[in-house]
Amino acid sequence: MHPDLFALSSAMSRPRLSLAMTINDRPEATVRIIAWGELETCTAGALCGAVRDALRRHRPARIEVDLTGITFIDARGISALVTSQEDAAQLGCRLAVPEVGRMVRRVLGVVGLLEQLGVVPVPRPRRHRA
Hints:
Layout: E1 4-9, E2 15-23, E3 30-39, H1 44-58, E4 62-73, H2 75-90, E5 94-100, H3 102-110
Parallel strand pairs: 3-4, 4-5
Antiparallel strand pairs: 1-2, 2-3
């Protein structure tokens, strides 16, 4: 695997969005982008850029975006996910967001994108019968 790591910094010098990318070298290459921080108006372009870069440099069959570390997402962040998925599809690549935190899951559920983005369902706890 080849890791790439980069971060966008705010004017206050604390990272608002950090992205790490790993590339699986197997024949059906998968790029995994791990994001943490805030996916919003000022940072959404970084995610789109990382996806475009992965598509151009690695031509993967699949891109997985892990959003478990995202603490905030707004409409621009959601738009970045959908746009990135469309960009990937144009090149025959499947972009999915299998892992998300509770807040992101709730937001994507409200806007009806859980299934489209390939978010893995949370297993429901089994109820014990008395």
